[in-house]
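From the shared-data thread, chain only:
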Amino acid sequence: MSLEKYAVYFPELSNDCSGQSGYLWVRKLGSGIEGTVDLVLSVSDGQLYARKKTVPTRPAGADYHSREGYFHRKHPRIPELISSADCRVLRDWHKQAELIKATVTISKYCNGGTLSAFHDQCRLTQSPQHEVTEQFLWRLLVDQLDVVLFVHNSTPSLGRTDGHMNNTWLHFPGPSWKLPEFFSGDLGQLEVLNADIWQPRKARQLRRLRDRKGLRKVPRYSGYVRCLADDLNHVRVNVDVVSRAQERSEEFNKCQRQLSDIVCGLWDFCDWEDDGNDDSHLIDGSPRKIPDPRCYNKVYELRKQVKRYAERAASDDEAGVDFRWARDVPTRPRLWVDRGMLLSDCNARGMPGPFRIVKVNTTTLAITDMETTEFGANNPLKLGAYGNDLFVYGYSREELVLDPLPDQETYQQEQDDSDSADSDDENADDVPQLDEELPTHEVADLLSRIPTLKRRHGKLVADFSKFQRFRNVEVRQVKKGTLIIRLGREDFLVTKWKDGRRKKSSTRNTKATDVRRRDKPKWHRCGRHSRLHRVTDECLREEEDRS
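Structure, as tokens:
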């Protein structure tokens, strides 16, 4: 009989409860300022894909569109976009639940890793197989130039802006491929360029930059030209870093110098200040030629030379060096024996939702059972947390509270009524009995949110008092400023601490400061054998002795 284990399942666009068209989580690929990327396995076709969930950056109004999906362009060296959808990050009761959304994309997985990781491995390993060849560099230069010029000539014209080594991926199409192909991913930072910076063109003609007189009429022309220069500079830097400390041919060095001259010419034009003199400037008595932005147009001739040299290098070295050591081995999805361990790992890893828990056959990887509860669907903390403050771009922490603030007057009135009822009749039928347990998924949801809540100490007591009727939830205020919350097998010791914020005086000659202090709770997760857990038990015993 085959065994069944637990796994993380992403329904994604299908929202299918049968488990026939979603994805199983394999491992985490990386995270950045825009979001988190995970490796997932498709249930329908058994292929590996890259799943990216972005940080919510703006209100998703009627004219909102995902940058990752809107700016995606089909190109042989851009990873194919399989699907793109928006998901909520706030609770349904929140007034901005329909506005603040994140984007989840499923794209093609490049099995060679990033160019940065490849370079680090070659630099640290001294072996012939890890030595970068000139054929490798020619292929890298060709693929990078093709993608940059492709986005520049697309409609609308776009700027790459972040084509660094971590956004350049290696991919081996087949088991017999020794030399990888280079893909440019993460198109979320593309910038739309003004079409007026280009010369009027005929059909199927590549875009060419206008002269300086024409560019002066375009607003922010310097920023657009600098964006073009930065895109070409990323290509130059990527090739220079990988080819460092390696002897190269004269043709390769010549192409690199030409690319550097184009980049420097565009940068000089951006730094040039127009004073009305169209001929030259006199600097220290010697004339200086005004930089011409049309040096960008030389990049098309450079690309032809690079392709010609790359084909010649491939024909001269047909055997080449085998770089298949960088190819990723096919991986199975991550499985857990215990459901509690799965929730604990997902909480520690900051698993980007929404996901569900399923039971998987360990032999066939077929889904046998699925839970209806979604986890991580309304948790922006893992993707938008900076330091101790909840931060979603453009919105303050007060506007994005996780739970509605309780009505203190109503809560106090209910407490007074319950106290008077208990004093009148201790055996009243409306007294809550501790024979009910809080469901496990709600306990896990509380565990994921408690360490990041930022509330006043009094409001915390009101928030968690409604859970005291459950047997597996215990809330005690052992003394003034100290609160103990026990959820299942997890303990939290809460103490008040002073948040001192210094505000400098507006006067220049005085050193007076205005110190504003607010009482905020400080959370400690108490393990079963930790010092804080012993402190928690001591506080509980002291309370029992006093009572």
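The chain has three domains: 4-109+330-386, 115-326, 406-423+433-546.
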